[in-house]
Amino acid sequence: MELDGGKDQTTLRTWIGVLGMMLGGFMAVVDIQITNSSLRDITGGIGATLDEGSWISTSYLIGEIVTIPLTAWLSRVFSVRRYLLASVGFFLLFSCLCGIARSLDEMICFRVGQGFTGGVMIPMALTVVLSTLPKNRQPFGSRSVRNDRHSGPCDRADDRRLADRQLRLALGLLHQSFSRSIDDRRHHLRH
Fold first, then answer.
1. CA within 20 to 30 Å of 78's CA: 57, 84, 117, 184, which one?
2. How far apart are CA 139 and CA 150, in angstroms?
3. Which of 116, 129, 134 minimizes the C-alpha distance to 21?
4. Burial of 109 by CB count in 10 Å (0-12 exposed, 13-18 middle, 19+ buried)?
């Protein structure tokens, strides 16, 4: 971060990192939606019924739900950079393996791995935004989300509240996506 006349200016390198993380988080969310919308074709391709194929979506969400609470701890153990690079690499590997899966069992195993590695990108994207961008550049830093009237010791409490809100938002979106996939499966089973 460079200082210019008292105003924060963010370097191009920082913006590239932030945009890359936001793209990774977006890809992890889109992966859920793509699978849910093409579940019928996927199950037909591997010779599974639609009821059995529901485990394809569920297995991804299970991997993701296990990973999200562990992300902060694992990023401290391995460092954010190493953890993200490994997660992105394995996410790509598991995505390719899902594309060549020949059975339901293979697809479920690969989707668990994909969810476990993709689940890292959603909370880490928010963490990277909050830790690398100055407050005036954070898209989540508006007064409607964050209380900027305080300074000093209150900043940490505000940051925790903001992180809690973002985690609840991410979990709410995950729950909403999971609920939609269950409703879609019920709808397909009736027709």
1. 57
2. 19
3. 129
4. middle
